[in-house]
Every structure is written in structure tokens, then in C-alpha cells.
Sequence to fold (311 residues):
Amino acid sequence: MLYFQVVILAATVMLAYYCEFTDTFSPAEQGFVCRDPALSKPDPGPEQDSRVQPVILFSVLGGLPVVLVSITDLVIFLLNYNSHQLYDQEKVVVMGDCCYVNPMVRRTFRFLGVYAFGLFTTDIFVNAGQLITGSLAPYFLSVCVPNYTTLDCEDASLFVSQSEACTGDPDDIMRARKTFPSKEAGLSLFTAVYLSMYVMSCAGSGGGRLTGPVFSLSLVGVAVLIGINRVAEYRNHWSDVIAGQTIGGAIAVFLVAFVVQYFKKRRVMSHSVSDAGTANTDEVSPQTNHNMTTGDKYVITRSPASFNEIT
Fold:
């Protein structure tokens, strides 16, 4: 099962790489309306000139979950070290008899693996939307530099569909055709929602009634501000930001609700099965098991020292 999960994660990473860093897939080429005011905003320049630079954004998206999940799991592990509420204190076999991993380490890698899968999945969904729609950025006409005289654009409502109508830099034109949904808005909100739900589900109200909500609202607020900044800099339309945030938030909620909760349910089920197997040992005869079943109400009132007398 572990190998299957690794293969899925590796395939997701490779697909995201091909969508992000190669020319294997090209966006659809949409036409435009002459002198469309929605596409005539000034060119904001490359992404490195943004207030939220890609280096800073992606460093936070990659580093913050690692630090936060590791610290949260370590704190929970230390608080529950002498109790068996969350972790087994026994070693966990990973591969045969060669590798043993502490339950805290296994749990941390699981949550980080789910996060990485969700992050790359969000990137794939966003890239797929950009390639399929080919939606034009608010500054498209500024980098397209169409020759209105040649295109007979005396009428401002004339629709131009020719792919060769643009005379600007091809790289800038390609960048201006990949805006819907907004990648930055989608990835940032995915991270904010995933980490917020993770901390709320793991820590609960142990740190105070307002600690979790304040932390969650802070993360979500920063993600929303990143989307607003994209619109303010004329890099995306409002519809691009809303679509990206919807995709990122939906994927985060799905993973936390179905995958992360599945980890918890599976641990509870494994504890129940192990307990049942321990109680049903070979030293107890069928007649003894029958007596235990029929006399449960007496076992509750008797001390452990007199348990042998009942059986």
C-alpha cells in the first residue's frame, strides 16, 4: 500500500512538472475585442516585480507546513506520551524487519504527504483550467500590441480572432493567456485551509478557545489578501481569483475530511481489533468465554484481583 501511494504522488509531481515547466501543453488562443477596456490595463511586468514575489510565496507554501505539522505533532506526542490516546508506544514496521519508525514520525510524514499531494493536485487543476480556457489577463492588449490599422479596428466592438494579430513578445503573450484560474490564489488558499483544518482537528481547544480560530482566520486572511493583491496589480480578474480559491479550498476540505480523518478512523479500528485479539487468547477456553459473556455485569463490580474467581 505504501508503494502504491508513493507511485501516485510521484505521478502527480511529474504531471505538475510537465504542466509548469515544459511546453508540452499550450493554452488555447482566444480572440479579443478591439480596445476592450477589461483587457487594456497597464502591463505589471514579470512576476518577480509583484509585491508577493514567487520566491517568497512558494518558499512559504513549502516550508510553513513542514514546520507547523512537525511542531504540532511533536507537541501532541509529548503531551500524550504516557497515555495511549493517540499513539502506540511500540515501534512501527515500515519495510519488513529492516526499518522501524516512531509513530510520531510516521504520522508526520503521512500528513505532509497528503499536503504535498494536495498542493500538486491543486497546481494540476489550475494549470488544466488555464490551458483549456486560455483566458486573457487584464493587461493582455498591453503586451499583445495589436496593429489596429491592419485589423480594421475602427469599430471598438470588432472581435479579432486571428492568432497572428499580436506583435508583442511571444513569452509575454503566452503569460497573459494563462490567468484563469489564478494559481497563486488557489495554492495559497489550499495551504491556509489545509493547515487551519489540520490544527483545529489535531489540537482542538487544548490551547484555548480562541487560539485555533485566530490562527485559522489569520492564515485564510493572508491567502485572501494575496488574491486581492493579484487583482490590484492587474495580474488577474476577480473571476480568476475566485475560481482559484474555490479549487484550492475544495481540495483542502476534501483531503482533510476524507483522507486525514481516514487515518484517525483506521487507528481507532486497529486498536479495537488488537484489543479484541488480546482478550481472545488460547489460554481462555470456550466455556470461559461463555461465562464472561453471560457474567459481564458481575465483572464490572469485581476487582481485578478476583477476576480469576469469576472465570
Notes: Strands lie at 32-33, 92-95, 99-101, 159-160.
